[in-house]
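Tokens help. Our protein:
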Amino acid sequence: MRIVIVEDNTPLRESLGLLLGGEHNLEVVGSFGVAEEALPVICAERPDALLVDLGLPGMSGIELIRRVKAAAPEVEALVHTISEDRGSVFAALKAGAAGYILKGVTPRELIEALNDLGTGGAPMSPKIARAVIKEFQDADTSEEYILTTREREIVAKLEEGLTYKELAQLLCVSHHTIHSHVKNIYEKLHAKGRRDALAKAKRKGII
């Protein structure tokens, strides 16, 4: 199985490369810290699998998955992330991810997940699988919870008219962090901009 890794944590990315490259049936054909550099290589190389984090600088992992599946639908995407909030999980699956593994699994579990992916499986960490099952069992669950608590807070402040700079100061985070949150909000709500995001958030009962 030919794999491309997209992970912005350099030590982890290098460790993953060594781990996976050491398996006789796995070959790492690309390793990148940002999605923008990975995308053209993935489209050219057409690997069997993409191992991708969601919290990337610039283009998010969710957007990368969406673009890869549009250009090369045969490439299977396995999310490898710390994010377990339901909004991220379902946004990634809807974008085209075939599996969702939380960071912290053992090396063997990750390798087994990739092998499972390669044989047509849909590997998921137990907590993620449980969340997916609950989503189907709980048909009346409100769409309010598609966003994280922090994302809902940001949407509410955007409705009040706060700028990104004011939000960053209020929440004691960087301007870049606010941009990342807003980008995730737009993706989860499938919004084209601020006005569209606020309108959809109101319709879904988020604000």
